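anyone seen this seq b4? input:
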Amino acid sequence: MTWTQFFVILLTALITAIMSNLFSFIKEKMIASSNTSSKYTEETLSKLYVPLYRLITKENYTLKGYDGLTPKTIFEMKKIIDQKPELCEPGLERLIAEMYEEALKLDGHYGTVHMKQGKKVDENGELYIYIINGFNTIRRNLGLPSERKKR
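predicted toks r here
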């Protein structure tokens, strides 16, 4: 064995050891990141989307199908959002804020005389679609059974 062969063998062993440790470190870092992301996603599902999903589907079962939400339901949704603002997406927060303002007007909180019986907000179903799609997307990402995207 010559010195050249010895250095080639030594260099190959060193490069192999360094590459093995580097790839192992990268893999562990990816797994840790995935676990953190998965934990956050599970928390978003259980503490935000499940309560909102229950509220929004509770009023969905009418003969006409979905025809909007009562101001009381919007007030309950606003409480859920306010309790966990770190889990709420900006789009969802914006939609609920818009519906909250409309519900306040309908419920007479602004001194208006709009207190019409049976008047509802989100009659076009924008908030309904957003919550249903968000709920199903998160369930799909976690590997749970879910429906395909509606509308």
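Residues 111-115 have pLDDT under 50 and may be disordered. The longest helix spans residues 3-58. kinda curious what u guys think
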